[in-house]
Amino acid sequence: MKKVTDIRPQRSGRRVNIVVNSTFTFTLDAELVTRVGLQVGQELSSDEVGGLLKADFFQSCFGLALHYLSYRPRSEAEVRRRLRRSFDSNVVEEVIANLKEQKLIDDVAFAEFWKDNRVCFSPRSRRLISCELKKKGVVDEIIEEVTRDLDDEASAYVAGSRKARLLGGLDYSKFRQRLVNYLKWRGFSYEIIKHIIDRLWQEQSSCQQSCLR
Questions:
Q1: pTM of the complete model
Q2: Looking at residue 23, what is its pLDDT?
């Protein structure tokens, strides 16, 4: 048996040094120490020490996952890749399972978030959004489900309209070339790009004529 002879908080306050038999032995998360009620004078078996260290790894890994998720929703694959940079696979998979159980990671919800964000703030083609989700590790079935109703022509019109506002005063050739490059970069097909450019040029010309009356 090992006897805890001192528990010393580190300067940060987030971790504590555990002294066993008057020798510094390991560190633990301060919250974990409080939760398990570890006290000076307590005797620990080797299995109990191993259990504390395993729980500490889980706590640290889980905390990193929550921090990573605090910036924006993430796919399961994104979270797994990030955690594996710092922790072994076993603890990572335990944390992933816990996060999924608590609905803190959900690939359907993530894919919906990603799609809606793109549609509202940075319209691009269904194909390009699907490619982005695939790179995030989302499976094909979910990608198909959440992108099924996307309308490339409507998205191209929104994206093109925003860009066209910055192109006032250009002749048709420059207006067209700028929009072709812009909409092509956003993944739209040539047929859709041509139709949208013709529509936007006609709208802009009509607006200019109205202003001159």
A1: 0.84
A2: 82
